[in-house]
Specification:
The complex is a heterodimer of chains A (296) and B (228). Chain A is mainly alpha-helical and 296 residues long. Chain A has ten helices and two strands. The longest helix of chain A is centred in the middle third of the chain and has 30 residues. Chain A is flat and about 70 Å long. Helix content of chain B is 73%, strand content 0%. The N and C termini of chain B lie far apart (63 Å). Classes of the chains: A mainly alpha (296), B mainly alpha (228).
Chain lengths: 296, 228
């Protein structure tokens, strides 16, 4: 598996968002997460998504962000198709057009668009946080607010082990190839997991000894290689995030007029074009996926 | 009655140094993530992201397996976005079933080991389907979504359709994960596996036939139920 790269990692930069402490960014992200799950109003979700996009452009992480958005593309296509014909809404549903053996429903189009905007808003804000913060800074900040040291160690260790295990897979697959065995695809990947995992476990013993020798289990103040400080501006952004997302979430919960699923209408031409293009896009993806699976 | 009280066997995770156990968790979680990522690259209709969970749940105990499951989804949200985060529940549920089934001795025979993997698939689908339906509108991004659309066309509602397509994928995934995990456990150092009570690992090629059989059987049952 040589050549595999981690698709999401910190994109170096010097924007104000990059320089910000990870805690305010995490708070905003969780606030947007709470807001997104509290409403299906497409205007609210659209605004949250649009602000997230502005932050993506401002922090100059656009190309890395677009690679992640590409992962979401097949899910988006299926979501629109499935929701249009079987909305995740209580009945009765209003039919606006027929699509082969299916009916396209008003509530389905609304539900598809709102769920898509919800996923995009959540992902965009999370990507801004992850791509502008060093993982160690995130975990160091979380430790400062009381996250257990052991849990912190496990999370950091997992992130560090991923590229190592990927390289191990590459080595094992190359070794298989050099012995005239299958070196790619399903039949090669599954058996190669055994030596990779067992090799990693054998290394655990050395890691355990080095942890013991550094008094891992001892009590007392732990120090960290990376130092993260909270500036006044970080406290301000944090307070702003808490108040803004808190009030917005409260508003969308109590204001029942924000449910536009029945009042917002879509023309049959728009509905059919949307579902048709999503279905064609999804079928193209399926054909591509089946070909990729068969060639593997 | 003998005066020598027989000491109750201590759990493996209690006998091993804590640092050793703690070091195994990230290895298992990283294996899950790499497995899932490779699966994504090959565009296979399974997940391959619970092999490390299975190994840890059996070797160290259900709750260590659950921790691996949760860590897998938390860390993978740093790699492929927050979409996988809600599915931590599924990974944790799978770990608990594997771990407690092993503690109860249900995984000691070849046939019971196979059945436990099927049980894990059913439990995982039960937890995954509400997440798919209420958070992602039934979409998975897999080509199993074609099956969901087919079940919808047969007149099923969205939840039943997503469950029907998900259980087929989940059955294949959990049985394969179970047997790859079994092969890994067999190759681990003896201090980790001396108390495990598992059948002998089969060649992975032999697993494909029962997997295909179970998936086809489940598909036939689902289609028959949908057409009724």
């Amino acid at each position: 598996m040589q050549g595999i790269v981690i698709p999401i990692s910190m994109v170096p930069g010097n924007s104000a968002i990059h320089r910000m402490n990870p805690l305010p960014k995490l708070l905003w992200t969780f606030g947007i997460l709470a807001l997104s799950f509290s409403t299906r109003n497409i205007a609210v979700l659209g605004i949250a998504f649009a602000i997230g996009l502005l932050l993506v452009f401002y922090s100059r992480i656009t190309s890395a962000y677009l690679r992640v958005a590409l992962i979401l593309f097949p899910i988006s296509l299926t979501l629109i198709t499935l929701q249009s014909i079987a909305p995740a809404f209580p009945r009765p549903w209003t039919t606006i057009a027929a699509f082969g053996p299916f009916n396209i429903y008003q509530e389905g189009i609304y539900s598809g668009i709102s769920l898509l905007l919800r996923i995009m808003a959540m992902t965009t804000w999370a990507m801004v946080t992850i791509m502008t913060s060093h993982p160690s800074d995130i975990f160091t900040s979380l430790k400062k607010i009381g996250m257990p040291y052991v849990l912190n160690f496990i999370l950091v260790m997992t992130l560090q082990l991923i590229p190592i295990l990927q390289n191990e897979f590459g080595t094992v697959l190359n070794a298989q190839k050099s012995r005239a065995m299958k070196g790619s695809g399903f039949g090669a990947i599954l058996p190669s997991m055994v030596p990779v995992f067992v090799g990693a476990i054998e290394r655990v013993q050395q890691l355990s000894i080095s942890l013991e020798s550094r008094a891992f289990g001892s009590t007392g103040q732990k120090s960290s290689f990376r130092q993260v400080r909270m500036a006044f501006s970080d406290y301000f952004v944090m307070a702003l995030g808490f108040v803004t997302t808190g009030l917005a979430t409260y508003w969308v919960i109590i204001d029942k007029s924000l449910d536009w699923s029945k009042s917002m209408t879509f023309s049959p031409i728009f509905a059919v074009s949307l579902v048709l293009s999503a279905t064609i896009g999804f079928l193209v993806f399926v054909i591509f996926a089946i070909r990729a699976a068969l060639s593997a | 009655m003998s005066t020598e009280a027989k000491a109750a066997p201590r759990k493996r995770s209690k006998r091993l140094p804590l640092t050793y156990v703690i070091a195994i968790v990230p290895v298992a979680a990283a294996l899950n993530i790499v497995g899932g990522y490779i699966n994504g690259i090959l565009k296979l209709p399974i997940f391959l992201d619970m092999i490390g969970t299975m190994v840890t749940a059996v070797v160290l105990g259900p709750w260590w397996g659950a921790l691996v499951g949760a860590i897998t989804n938390i860390v993978s949200s740093f790699i492929s976005g927050p979409i996988g985060l809600p599915f931590a529940v599924v990974n944790v549920a799978g770990a608990l079933v594997w771990g407690y089934a092993h503690s109860a001795g249900w995984m000691s025979k070849t046939w019971s080991f196979f059945l436990v993997n099927i049980l894990v698939a059913v439990v995982c689908s039960t937890f995954a389907v509400p997440i798919y339906v209420f958070i992602f509108g039934g979409a998975t991004g897999h080509f199993s979504d074609v099956m969901t659309a087919a079940f919808l066309a047969m007149g099923q509602n969205l939840i039943v359709s997503v469950f029907s397509s998900n259980i087929l994928v989940s059955l294949a995934d959990k049985i394969i994960s179970g047997y790859v995990g079994l092969a890994i456990i067999e190759a681990l150092p003896a201090n980790l596996t001396e108390d495990t009570n598992l059948p002998k690992a089969e060649g992975l090629n032999k697993i494909i036939i029962p997997v295909v059989g179970v998936v086809i059987g489940a598909a036939v049952i689902m289609i028959a139920l949908a057409l009724q």
